[in-house]
Amino acid sequence: MSENLPSLQQLLEQVSGKRFLDAVSPGDRGLADDIRFPFLGLVGQREMKLALLLALINPAISGVLLVGPRGTGKTTAVRSLSDLMPLVHRSLCQYGCLPEDIEAGGMDAVCPDCAKKYGEGRPLTYLDPVKLIELPLNARLEDVVGGLDEAAAAHKRMRIRRGLLAQADQNILYIDEVNLLADEIVDAILDAAAQGMYTVRRGPVAGTYRARFVLIGSMNPEEGRLRPQILDRFGLRLIVSGLTDPDERLEAYRRVRAYLTNPKAVVAAYAAETLQMRDEVQAARNLLPSVRLQPAAEQAGLQLVQRLQIDSLRAEITLFEAARALAAADNRTEATVADVRTVAPLTVRLRRSQFMVDYFNQQQVEEKEIQRVLDDVITPPAQA
Ligand SMILES: [Zn+2]
Question: What is the pTM of this model?
Answer without folding.
Answer: 0.82
